[in-house]
Predict the structure.
Amino acid sequence: MAKLILSMDGLVLKEISLSKERTTIGRKPHNDIQIDNLAVSGEHAVIVTILNDSFLEDLGSTNGTLVNGQPIKKHFLQPNDVIELGKYKLKYINEAPKVAAAADFEKTMVLRPGSMPKPSAAAAPVAKADGDHTVKNPGGTPAAPTPAPAVAPATPARQGAIQLLSGANVGKELILTKALTTLGKPGVQVAVITRRPQGFFITHVEGAHFPVVNGKTLDAQAHPLNDHDVIEIAGTKMEFFYK
C-alpha cells in the first residue's frame, strides 16, 4: 500500500497510509491530513488513489503545491516524489507495481474529432482442458499429463465498453481493456473508470463538477457502473455497457 512520510526541517512527524480513494490535505480539521500552519490552505490538495496509482491535485491553494521543487496543478505521483506545502514535506512511498503509466492519466480518450481509437479485436477463445488434464496421442496412448493452466487474475466476467452519445465522436465505441481509463478534459473535468474483480467503477479525479450517472451527480467515492448507465462528463454523454 502506498504511504506518505510527513516531515518538517528534516524531522519525521508521522507516516500516513493512502488507504482511501480520496485523501485530503489542508489546515482545517476535517482533512484526512491536517497541517495546522498558515502557509497551508484550509483545503489545500487532494490525493486520489486508484488501485496502485496515486494522483495529486492542488485545490486552488493560496501558496501552491510543489512536487520535487516544481509547482503543479495535477501530478501523477512516482515513488520518492516529495510534495512540498510551505515548510512541510510529504514523501510518497509505493513499492507496489504500477498498473497505469502517467501517460494513461494525462491522455483523455474523449472529445476530439478522430481521437477515439478503434475497438480492439476480441480475444481468441481459450481451449477447455479435460478434467484430468490428460492429452491422448493419435494412436490412443495417453501422453504425459499436462500441468493445469495457470489461474488468471480475477476480472469481470464480461467486457466493458462505452459509446459516445453526443459530441463530434457520437456513435464511437471504446472497449475498456485497461485497468484504468481516463475520461474528460484536463483542467475542466476528469474522471477515471477502473476495472476491478467485481466490475467497473467510475471515480471523480479533477474539476469543480462531479460526473453525472443516469441524471444523478456523484460524490467523491467510487461508483459502480451497471449495464447501460449513461455518464455525463465535461459536457459529453456516453453510455456504459457490457459487450
About this structure: Residues 98-108, 119-138 have pLDDT under 50 and may be disordered.
